[in-house]
Design a protein that fits this description.
Layout (H helix, E strand, L loop, with lengths): L58 E5 L4 H12 L3 E6 L3 H12 L5 E5 L5 H15 L4 E4 L15 H22 L8 E5 L12 H21 L5 E7 L6 H5 L2 H4 L18 H8 L10 E4 L7
Parallel strand pairs: 1-2, 1-4, 2-3, 4-5, 5-6, 6-7
Helix pairs in contact: 1-2, 1-8, 3-4, 4-5
């Protein structure tokens, strides 16, 4: 029998109380938002995520890896042994911090700024990954754009086009460019949303793209199965990221997540283990699947 002194103590946490719950202070940022201006600060797993070598030696790409869910995934991937290319628009301060967090784990971080709505830039991301890493094992399509509008008449045609180009066209561009460099056992993980199932009426364009991502993932998983490439997606509910205070008015961001059964927004750190699962061999019989992380919000 093990010595009683060697026993670990199991600490159980009420999920409603694990992280700050609204109301939050009123706040507003310019798009795309930055981590440093958020109150409360988001948790990306900086202090909590513990790796165990699940992605040792893997070469990965994360779009939107500068902040929010993308930063949490970058931290987790690095602690699991992966090198990480971080694609981002223009958030230099946040991107450098994400790179620092990857590098402090002894892993390589590559920063590639630019607009993923442009096909040529997406090709450049893949080319850079191949040049820096020699291969691509995991592609995480995570970056997204949203802009709430109260009526259909308020949505500019240019904004509708931008939302589709950033959220779904980029996935097509990146997957198409990456596929020739992905060997059997490689994985693609796409970020969809609870909005694919329960669309917010003020996010018509965004919700439509998330529904498209859901179907794109399912179709691509079947198309690439014979090549041994798995494709899955994660459907987050309300997650506390810079996207929220930079696109919602203060009165909305201050109560963000309150209407979920867990009565709070999720934190990026609470999603990272799901991306690790889908990127690793632990999910070897999963393809075309969606893992929902919604704080209890029903999706059917």
């Amino acid at each position: 029998m093990a010595n009683s002194e060697s026993k670990e103590t199991y600490s159980q946490t009420n999920p409603q109380e694990k992280y700050p719950a609204p109301p939050f202070p009123d706040q507003e940022q310019e798009v795309p938002g930055t981590e440093s201006q958020m109150t409360p600060k988001a948790d990306h797993g900086e202090e909590s995520y513990r790796g165990s070598g699940k992605l040792a030696g893997r070469k990965t790409i994360i779009t939107g890896g500068d902040s929010g869910i993308g930063r949490a995934v970058a931290i987790a991937f690095a602690r699991e042994g992966a090198d990480v290319l971080i694609s981002y628009l223009n958030e230099e301060e946040d991107a450098r911090e994400s790179a620092r967090l990857v590098e402090q784990e002894g892993r390589k971080a590559v920063l590639v700024p630019g607009d993923i709505s442009d096909e040529e830039h997406c090709k450049e991301i893949i080319d850079r990954a191949v040049s820096e890493f020699g291969q691509i094992d995991v592609l995480v399509n995570n970056a997204a754009f949203q802009m709430p509008r109260e009526s259909l008449q308020d949505i500019p045609s240019e904004e509708w086009d931008k939302t589709f180009r950033v959220n779904i066209y980029s996935m097509f561009y990146l997957c198409k460019a990456a596929e020739p460099h992905m060997k059997p056992g490689s994985t693609i993980v796409n970020t969809t949303s609870v909005n694919a199932y329960k669309p917010n009426p003020t996010l018509v364009a965004y919700a439509a793209t998330k529904g498209a991502i859901q179907n794109f993932t399912s179709s691509l998983a079947q198309m690439l199965a014979d090549k041994g490439i798995r494709v899955n997606c994660v459907a987050p509910g309300p997650i506390w990221t810079p996207l929220i205070p930079s696109t919602f008015p203060p009165e909305k961001s201050s109560t963000f997540g309150k209407d979920t059964p867990l009565k709070r927004a999720g934190q990026p750190a609470e999603l990272a283990p799901i991306y690790v699962l889908l990127a690793s061999e632990d999910s070897s019989y999963m393809t075309g699947s969606t893992v929902q992380v919604t704080g209890g919000t029903p999706t059917i």
